[in-house]
C-alpha cells in the first residue's frame, strides 16, 4: 500500500473512543479553534473517506469536509448536547457531500485503490471487489449515502435514523433496497 | 443479501475511501484559519475556504464561455488596448456583418471607449481601463435587477464572511449586507441564502430580513423569478423546490431540480433525474432523466424524456418559445449533442454537435464547438437557425457569449482576440479586444449582461489569493 495513503479503517476505530468532553464544545462555542480541532480531529479522516464515497472525488471530498467544518464552526451553538457532536458532525458532512453531488449533477467514477491481496485474499475476490466498486460508483447518491453510513461508517440503525431524520424502520428498508440495487448493479458489471 | 457480499462491500468501501495524506491536511489548515466566531451570520459565496475557490452565485445571465471572454476584457485593461467603432449607421441585425476572429482593425473612437462611472470605491486591483465597481480579495457577481437599474456584487471579507453590495446603474452603492447566495425579486427586494442554510427576503435599504425557510441554493431569473431548492438530507426521495412570490410567499414544494427561468419569468425548466444512465466501462456516467417546462404556477407545459445529461446546461430562448439543452448519448460513436425543444409544439430538433451555447436572438443559437471527430468537423463558433435548421460556421474561436438581444461576443483563447458586437438603436458597435497572452482564462470568474444588453459586468483577478476587480463595460 502506498505509504501516503491513509487507511480510514484505522481511524474508524478512533472515532467512537470515549465521550465528547463537554468543555471542549463550550470552549469551541466561545471561539477556541484548538478545542474545535480536538473535537473534529478524531472524525476527520473517516469523514473525508465518507465524503469521498459520496462525491466520488477526492478533491470534492476535501472541499465538502472543509465546507462542513466551516458550517459546523459557524453553527456550534446549535449543538445542544455535546455527546451528539459525532452525529451532528456526520450529518453536516453528509449534507455537504450531498450538495456537491447535486451541484455537479453526476457522479464521478471512483478509482479503486485496492490493498495488496493478503494471504487469504484470492484473485477472484479482488476481481469481485473491483466489480463491486464500479457498481457502487453507479448507484444513486442517496443509496451511496445509506451504504456509506451502514457499511463504511458502520453506524447503528438508530443513529442513521437520527442523522437522516427518518424512522428506524424506514432506514432499514432503504438500506435493504440500496443493497438490492447494488447487487443488481454488481451482477450487471459481472455480465458486462 | 449474503454476508459475503456485505463483507466484500465493507472492504471495498474501505478501499475506495482511502484518501491521500495531503488531502487530510487541507481541512486541518482550514481549522487553523477559521474565522472568528463572532461572524456567526457570515454568508458564503464560494464552496471552499482554501484552495481553488468556486463562486456559488449563479449570475442571472451567464455568458456561456464568458470566462475566457472576460479575461480578454480584463487583460486588455492590463496588457492591451480597447478599440471600437460603429460599423453601420442604421439598425441592422447584429449578425449581418459581423467581423470575427480579430479581423476587425478599427480605429478608436470616443464613443467606443467606456466612460468611467462614479463609484464609492477608490483604487483597483489592476491598472484598469474600464470603470471599477468593486475591488476585493474575492468578488462574484450576483445579478442585475429585473429593470436593469441595479446590480449586486458579492465580496469575501476574511476567510468566510461574505457581503453583497448593491449598486445603482451609475455605480453608486445603495446597500450592503451579508449574503451567501442572492437573487433579485424586484428592483427593491431580494432573496438571500445565508450560511445558516436559511433563505431570507430583504428590501434595499432596510435591515429587516424575513426568514423564508431552510434551503440549499436558489435559481434566479431575469424578471425577479426565484426558485429555492430544498435542503438535502440524503434521504429525501427526490429533489424538491419552491417558487418565491413577489411578496415573499412560497409555493408548495414541487418535484425536480430547477435549472433555468425563461426571460419573462413565466416558465421554469426543471430537470428530473431518474437514474444513472447505462454507460460503457470507462465512460463517465451521466444522469438519465426528463426535462420539463412548467409555468411559474407549477402547471406542466411540455416535457422531454430519455435525456442524458452529465452537466445540465439549459437555456430558454429570449422569447421563451424554445429551450436548448445538452444530451449525452454516451455511446462510442455519438458525441454530446444539443437538443432544442419547441415549447408550443413539443418538437425537438437535434444538433449533432455540441458545446457551450448562448442564444444570440430568439431564432439563432450559437455554440462553441471543439472538434471531437479528428478534424472532420472544424472547430469554431457555429450558428444554428431554429426556423430553417441551418447550421453554419459563425466564426473562428472557442468562446461565445450573447445577450439574446443581438449582443454577441466571440473569441479565441488561442489567438487572444475577442470581438464584442453590440447593436444599438442606430449603430452596430464592434469592439475588438487584444489580449495579453499571459492572461489566462483562470483569472476570470463572472460576467453578466444587463437585461437590455447595453452593459456588461465583468469580474476578474486572482480568485485564490486576490485581489479582484468588478468592472463595468458600457459601449
Describe this structure in words.
The complex is a heterodimer of chains A (192) and B (475). With 192 residues, chain A is mostly helical. Chain A has helices spanning 8-15, 22-29, 33-55, 58-74, 85-104, 123-137, 141-151, 157-164, 168-191, and one strand spanning 5-6. In chain A, helix 1 packs across helix 3 (33-55), helix 6 packs across helix 9 and helix 7 (141-151) packs across helix 9. Chain B has a single domain, classed as Methylamine Dehydrogenase, Chain H. In chain B, the strands form seven sheets. Chain B has a seven-stranded antiparallel sheet, with no helix packed on it. In chain B, strands 2-30-29-28-27 form a five-stranded antiparallel sheet. Chain B has a four-stranded antiparallel sheet with strand order 3-33-32-31. At the A-B interface, strand 1, helix 3, helix 4, helix 5 and helix 6 of A face helix 1, strand 1, helix 2 and strand 16 of B.
Query: Biggest β-sheet of chain A, characterized?
Result: none
What is the average per-residue confidence, as pLDDT of chain B, rounded to a whole number?
70
* Quantity of strands of chain B, as a count: 33
Strand content of chain B: 35-45%
Can you tell me the CATH superfamily of the largest domain in chain A? RNA polymerase sigma factor, region 2, helix turn helix motif
| Name of the CATH class of chain B | Mainly Beta
- Overall tally of domains of chain A: 2
Helix proportion range of chain B: under 10%
- Shape field of chain A: elongated
Which architecture name of the largest domain in chain A does CATH use? Orthogonal Bundle
Task: Give the low-confidence spans of chain B.
Answer: 38-122, 434-443
- Specify Rg of chain A, calculated over alpha carbons: 17 Å
Under CATH, the topology of the largest domain in chain A can be stated as: Rna Polymerase Sigma Factor, Chain: A
Taken in chain order, the helices and strands of chain A follow as: EHHHHHHHHH
- Assign an overall shape of chain B: globular
Number of strands of chain A: 1
CATH architecture of chain B: 7 Propeller
- Rounded to the nearest angstrom, the distance between the terminal CA atoms of chain B is 67 Å
Largest interface: A-B, 88 and 68 residues
- The structural class of chain A is mainly alpha
Amino acid at each position: 500500500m502506498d505509504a501516503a495513503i491513509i487507511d480510514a479503517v484505522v481511524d474508524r476505530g478512533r472515532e467512537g473512543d470515549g465521550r465528547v468532553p463537554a468543555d471542549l464544545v463550550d470552549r469551541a462555542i466561545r471561539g477556541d479553534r484548538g478545542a474545535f480541532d480536538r473535537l473534529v480531529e478524531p472524525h476527520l479522516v473517516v469523514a473525508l473517506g465518507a465524503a469521498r464515497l459520496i462525491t466520488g472525488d477526492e478533491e470534492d471530498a476535501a472541499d465538502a469536509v472543509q465546507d462542513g467544518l466551516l458550517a459546523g464552526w459557524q453553527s456550534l451553538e446549535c449543538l445542544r448536547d455535546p455527546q451528539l457532536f459525532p452525529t451532528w458532525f456526520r450529518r453536516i458532512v453528509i449534507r455537504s457531500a450531498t450538495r456537491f453531488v447535486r451541484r455537479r449533477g453526476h457522479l464521478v467514477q471512483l478509482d479503486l485503490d485496492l490493498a495488496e491481496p493478503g494471504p487469504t485474499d484470492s484473485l477472484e475476490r479482488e476481481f469481485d471487489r473491483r466489480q463491486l466498486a464500479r457498481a457502487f460508483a453507479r448507484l444513486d447518491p442517496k443509496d451511496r449515502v445509506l451504504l456509506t453510513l451502514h457499511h463504511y461508517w458502520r453506524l447503528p440503525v438508530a443513529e442513521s435514523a437520527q442523522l437522516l431524520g427518518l424512522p428506524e424502520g424506514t432506514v432499514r428498508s432503504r438500506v435493504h433496497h440500496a443493497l438490492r440495487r447494488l447487487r443488481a448493479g454488481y451482477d450487471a458489471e459481472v455480465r458486462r | 443479501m449474503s454476508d459475503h457480499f456485505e463483507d466484500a462491500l465493507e472492504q471495498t468501501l474501505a478501499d475506495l475511501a482511502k484518501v491521500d495524506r495531503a488531502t487530510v491536511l487541507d481541512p486541518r489548515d482550514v481549522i487553523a484559519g477559521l474565522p472568528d466566531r463572532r461572524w456567526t451570520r457570515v454568508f458564503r459565496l464560494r464552496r471552499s475556504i482554501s484552495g481553488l475557490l468556486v463562486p456559488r452565485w449563479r449570475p442571472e445571465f451567464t455568458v456561456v464561455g464568458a470566462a475566457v471572454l472576460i479575461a480578454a476584457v480584463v487583460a486588455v485593461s492590463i496588457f492591451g488596448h480597447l478599440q471600437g467603432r460603429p460599423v453601420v449607421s442604421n439598425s441592422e441585425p447584429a449578425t449581418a456583418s459581423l467581423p470575427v476572429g480579430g479581423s476587425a482593425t478599427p480605429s478608436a473612437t470616443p464613443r467606443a471607449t467606456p466612460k468611467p462611472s462614479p463609484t464609492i470605491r477608490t483604487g483597483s486591483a489592476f491598472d484598469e481601463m474600464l470603470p471599477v465597481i468593486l475591488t476585493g480579495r474575492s468578488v462574484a457577481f450576483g445579478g442585475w435587477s429585473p429593470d436593469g437599474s441595479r446590480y449586486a456584487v458579492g465580496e469575501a471579507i476574511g476567510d468566510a464572511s461574505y457581503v453583497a453590495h448593491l449598486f445603482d446603474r451609475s455605480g453608486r452603492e445603495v446597500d450592503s449586507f451579508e449574503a451567501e447566495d442572492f437573487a433579485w425579486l424586484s428592483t427593491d427586494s431580494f432573496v438571500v441564502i445565508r450560511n445558516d442554510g436559511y433563505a431570507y427576503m430583504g428590501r434595499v435599504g432596510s435591515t429587516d430580513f424575513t426568514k423564508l425557510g431552510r434551503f440549499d441554493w436558489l435559481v434566479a431569473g431575469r424578471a425577479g423569478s426565484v426558485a429555492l431548492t430544498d435542503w438535502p438530507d440524503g434521504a429525501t426521495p427526490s429533489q424538491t423546490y419552491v417558487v418565491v412570490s413577489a411578496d415573499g410567499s412560497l409555493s408548495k414544494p414541487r418535484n425536480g431540480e430547477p435549472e433555468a427561468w425563461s426571460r419573462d419569468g413565466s416558465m421554469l425548466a426543471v430537470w428530473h433525474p431518474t437514474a444513472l444512465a447505462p454507460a460503457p466501462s470507462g465512460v463517465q456516467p451521466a444522469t438519465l432523466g426528463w426535462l420539463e417546462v412548467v409555468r411559474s404556477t407549477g402547471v406542466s407545459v411540455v416535457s422531454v424524456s430519455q435525456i442524458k445529461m452529465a452537466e445540465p446546461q439549459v437555456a430558454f430562448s429570449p422569447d421563451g418559445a424554445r429551450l436548448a439543452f445538452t444530451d449525452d448519448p454516451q455511446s462510442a460513436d455519438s458525441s454530446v449533442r444539443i437538443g432544442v425543444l419547441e415549447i408550443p409544439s413539443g418538437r425537438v430538433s437535434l444538433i449533432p454537435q455540441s458545446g457551450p451555447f448562448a442564444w444570440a436572438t430568439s431564432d439563432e443559437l450559437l455554440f462553441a464547438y471543439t472538434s471531437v471527430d479528428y478534424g472532420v468537423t472544424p472547430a469554431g463558433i457555429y450558428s444554428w437557425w431554429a426556423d430553417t435548421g441551418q447550421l453554419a460556421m459563425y466564426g473562428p474561436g472557442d468562446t461565445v457569449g450573447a445577450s439574446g438581444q443581438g449582443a454577441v461576443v466571440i473569441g479565441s483563447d488561442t489567438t487572444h482576440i475577442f470581438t464584442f458586437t453590440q447593436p444599438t438603436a442606430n449603430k452596430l458597435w464592434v469592439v475588438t479586444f487584444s489580449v495579453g497572452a499571459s492572461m489566462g482564462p483562470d483569472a476570470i470568474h463572472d460576467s453578466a449582461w444587463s437585461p437590455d444588453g447595453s452593459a456588461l459586468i465583468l469580474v476578474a483577478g486572482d480568485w485564490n489569493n486576490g485581489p479582484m476587480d468588478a468592472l463595468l463595460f458600457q459601449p
